[in-house]
UniProtKB/TrEMBL annotation:
The keyword ATP-binding applies. Residues 5-239 form the ABC transporter domain. It comes from Blastopirellula marina. Coiled coil: none annotated. One of its GO terms (cellular component) is plasma membrane. It comes from the Bacteria. The keyword ATP-binding applies. This is ABC transporter. SMART domains: AAA. Pfam families: ABC_tran. InterPro entries: AAA+_ATPase (IPR003593), ABC_transporter-like_ATP-bd (IPR003439), ABC_transporter-like_CS (IPR017871), ABC_transpr_LolD-like (IPR015854), MacB-like_ATP-bd (IPR017911), P-loop_NTPase (IPR027417). PROSITE patterns: ABC_TRANSPORTER_1, ABC_TRANSPORTER_2.
């Protein structure tokens, strides 16, 4: 089995004004390629801390993160940024688009880390924009788009480098229920096409679209189950 990401005994300690916070207390799990994982948990349980580590946005105090088999611990800061740009597609709750750029230009942004943007890259940006349903909006700027359309741009942007996995932080947190369903349908389609997705969410409705739900509590993984198993457990409990 191939793994998109493997983490072993991850620990993260924050020190703030003399106070020590153990945000992660030894977290270990593997995400096989093609999985769709929802990370849930109460506020303060360590979800954002874990997401930052999975996104190579921060480093653990202790423990190992293997991205596509590469140990990220031995990389310099520059190499870690390169690794993030090449292997992880990140989607944020607030879309994080650049207001001065058009839809197509926003999708291109991760390519700048790699250097030159080729005509072939431009063709792929357009293809992705159409794939996520942005036909007729390619030259619009973020302000001219709805929240759902802006999140579609962010999804296309996350795919431009053909990442090992998509990491989404409350991606539907700012969207109404209909638009949430549309974005989740897009994720489901990407996962059915083989994309690995890891999503942090507070909402059961969102996590139910995943294949696997991991619940965090006080810096640890409290439970980790396949959703089919949960469905059958609920059905057994109800009968
Ligand atoms: N930069 C930081 N400095 C100090 N403490 C921090 C820092 N970031 C997070 N923490 C603490 O680490 C713990 C875990 O925080 P984290 O943000 O990972 O939780 P979370 O599950 O994402 O919460 P939420 O759902 O509210 O976003 C909390 O006690 C938090 O106060």
């Amino acid at each position: 089995m191939k793994f998109a990401v493997q983490v072993d005994d991850l620990r993260k300690v924050y020190r703030l004004k003399g106070e020590t916070v153990h945000a992660l207390r030894g977290v270990s799990f593997d995400v096989p390629e093609g999985d769709y994982v929802a990370i849930m948990g109460t506020s303060g349980s360590g979800k954002s801390t874990l997401l930052n580590l999975l996104g190579c946005l921060d480093r653990p105090s202790q423990g190992k993160i293997l991205l596509g088999g590469y140990d990220t611990g031995s990389l310099s800061d520059d190499e870690l940024s390169q690794m993030r740009a090449a292997r992880v597609g990140i989607i944020f709750q607030a879309y994080n688009l650049i207001q001065q750029l058009t839809v197509l230009e926003n999708i291109e942004v991760p390519l700048y880390y790699r250097g030159k943007v080729t005509p072939e890259d431009r063709r792929r940006c357009k293809e992705l924009a159409l794939m996520v349903g942005l036909k007729g909006r390619l030259d619009h700027r973020p302000m001219q788009l709805s929240g759902g359309q802006q999140q579609r741009v962010a999804v296309a942007r996350s795919l431009i480098n053909n990442p090992d996995y998509i990491l989404a932080d409350e991606p539907t947190g700012n969207l109404d229920s209909r638009t949430t369903e549309e974005i989740l349908a897009l994720f489901e389609r990407l996962n059915n096409e083989g994309r690995t997705i890891i999503i942090v969410t507070h909402e059961d409705d969102v996590s139910e679209h995943a294949r696997r739900v991991m619940r965090m509590s006080d810096g640890e993984i409290a439970s980790d189950y396949q959703i089919e198993n949960r469905r059958s457990a609920l059905a057994t409990a109800a009968s």
